[in-house]
Every structure is written in C-alpha cells, then in structure tokens.
Predict the 3D structure of the following.
Amino acid sequence: MRAIQVKEYVKGPDGLRVVDLPDPTPQPDQYLIGIHASATNFFDLLQIRGKYQHQPPLPWVSGSEFSGVILKTPSKPKSGGKPKYQVGDKVFGASQGGYATK
C-alpha cells in the first residue's frame, strides 16, 4: 500500500513523503478498507509537527478522516453475528492512518 508515514516530526506538509508499506493484516474483529479520499484537519497539522497532546509512537501513518470501500469483513465480529458492513459497502470514518490506500 502507499501511505504518508511519519518517521520524524516535520515543520509542515511539505516535509511529508509517500512511501510503500506492506498491506495491513486486519485482526479477526477488524475491517479492511480501501481508502479513496481523506481529509486534512488542524489536528493533523499539529500531529505531524509533534504538537498535539496525543502522539502515536513513531513511525506512524498520518491522517484521521477517510472514506472508502470495504475490502474485507471481520471473520469474528465483536457482535458475534454477521458483520454490519459487507465487501463493497461505501464507508467513512476517523482513525489514525487515513493517509493510506488501505
């Protein structure tokens, strides 16, 4: 997958670089989402500079808001039943790692 990985804090977006990373392997209770779009918020700009109050350990993939399509559903959903979303469903959300293709 392609992603913007933060290996060290930067002064601004110009210091970010796109890298190739292995495709993520979701846990049995997680979805895999193909990301089609992501947003940049003030929070993201603070975080890449190391100035946000909660920082993930380096290295990490930046971005929080995203939209995309379900590529893989959980094999063991937390609800114990059928997954709420199915492969091909369009979704949006917020979680660390929005600046990636998966």
User: Anything to note?
Assistant: The beta strands are 2-6, 18-20, 32-38, 60-61, 65-72, 90-94. Residues 63 and 98 are 4 Å apart (CA to CA). The radius of gyration is 15 Å. The longest strand covers residues 65-72.
